[in-house]
Amino acid sequence: MEAPKRFSTYFFMGPAPTEALTADGGEIHELAWMRPADAMRRRNEGEIELIPPTFITLALLASFATTTDALAHYRDNSPEYFVTKFTRADGYNIALYDGDAGYASSDASVPGSRNRLLMGEGDWVYERDV
Fold first, then answer.
1. pLDDT for residue 1 is more than 80
2. DSSP string of 42-87?
3. CB of 22 within 8 A of CB of 30?
4. Is residue 88 part of a domain?
5. Count of domains in the chain?
6. Distance CA 87, CA 26 (A)
7. Which ranges of the sequence are coiled-coil (predicted)?
């Protein structure tokens, strides 16, 4: 099943600003700087909320040793686009993405490559081997 309502979200990368940032009280009510892995952990511990596109972006960023490495990678590669197909299996809501063996059929049990977000009651886990 494809997501009933689609929305587009874009993520941009650049060096962190040197000046202090403040919440504007409009769209931004609070802000915090943290490493991607820390944000994912805090989401899994229920301290913050994240939507799936943000969680996946953080998982991808967490795979880089340094900010410089991440900036170089994304500068030199085309952006990825994720069109989600949702399913449910083994107590998880599962978001399937292009490249996952189960993507075409929306069947998470299809063996093969993985590009999916497992969303359980607590932990979310991004699986990717494509």
1. no
2. HHHTTSS---HHHHHHHHHHHTSSSHHHHHHHHHHSPPP----EEE
3. no
4. yes
5. 1
6. 34
7. none
Residues in contact with 82: Cβ distance below 8 Å, sequence separation at least 6, in sequence order: 53, 56, 97, 98
Please give the residue range of the domain that contains residue 82: 36-128
Average pLDDT over residues 11-35: 87
**Tens digits of residue pLDDT in 30-50:** 888 899 999 999 999 999 999
Measured CA to CA, the distance from residue 81 to residue 115 in angstroms comes to: 12
- Residue 14 resides in a domain: no
With a cut of 60, say whether residue 102 has pLDDT above it: yes
Q: With contact defined as beta carbons under 8 Å apart, do 20 and 1 qualify? A: no
Q: End-to-end distance of the chain based on CA atoms, in angstroms?
A: 22
* Rg from Cα positions in the chain: 16
**Structure confidence at residue 18 (pLDDT):** 86
102 belongs to a structural domain: yes
The mean pLDDT of 93-114, rounded to a whole number, is 98
Treating both helix axes as pointing N-terminal to C-terminal, what angle do 52-62 and 36-44 enclose, rounded to 10 degrees? 140
Is 25 a domain residue?
Answer: no
| pTM for this predicted structure | 0.85
